[in-house]
Request: fold
Amino acid sequence: MRLISKLTAALIVSSAIFAGAANAQTVLRSSDTHPDGYPTVEAVKYFGELLAERTEGRYSVEVYHSAQLGQEADTIEQVRSGVIELNRVSMAPWNSLVPLTLIPSLPYLFTSPDHARKVMMSEIGDEVAAGFEDHGVVVLTYYDGGARSFYNSKKEVNSVADLAGQKYRVIQSDVFVDMVAALGATATPMPYGEVYSGIETGVIDGAENNFPSYESARHFEVAKFFSLDEHTIVPEVFVMSKVHWDRLTDEDKEIFKQVARESAEKQWELWDARVEASRKIVEDAGSTISTPDKQPFIDAMAPVYEKYVNTPELEDFVARIRAVE
Ligand code: GTR
Reply:
């Protein structure tokens, strides 16, 4: 009986969504790989609050954090096909699908998180976003993905030479694989949720990420040597399934975009605070943080640029990003 009434309720809700009924309460489901409290999770919750307010309760958001709906690659398929309405993921797993996302994923392109924020919120970000629409989603906004650095379970990395022969987990993206290879190490692409045990069991020597991820995924417990080489700042994307987007009225589309933009500003605030807090947590827990000279790392990236920035248009695109102050 209970099951039947649950199913009936689900049907009523989904038919309300399908009909786009004016007074329906539509709950939008959003996925995130990070735990509750993480800046991206909190920013999407904030988006939901603003959305409910500005639509007089017609829309609300439920965030499925902690990879409850699966690893990023799976949830990307879910949002593309419309099984879930929203998703917050890194830009890197889109690299093979949306070619222009390769550019903001390049190592040492953005000079600071602030530079990345400015670029992604400019028309450059809109040009990147346009490429997503052919693949079933609309970019609502970008969030700050912070600077990523290498960390290792066995040794301190103070130079490019120290990376030789080390095996690092990377995000499932060719740019990441090539970047690690150009540094003389080996890349093993694998889902985020497998990194902790991968390091613990010695399948990989380490991984690379920003302080909030290193801390919240507890990677610092198994890899205590953090090397602040800050090799890449990859934006996060907050997307909506195009199937659901296309059902919104023009007025609602405006509201969605506007509150998403406001949620990005919130995320930036939360992000800055969390970077500091996470750094303190890992230092207190005994992580050593080394700060290698970045220039040799930057120099080693030349082949990656040669491979991916391979047309005059892309060269121009990179130059435009570099020119943003
Ligand atoms: C984090 C990012 C996640 C995920 C993760 C990873 O910084 O926020 O979306 O992509 O990195 O390395 O898989």
Remarks:
- The longest strand covers residues 225-233.
- The radius of gyration is 20 Å.
- DSSP finds 13 helices and eleven strands in the chain.
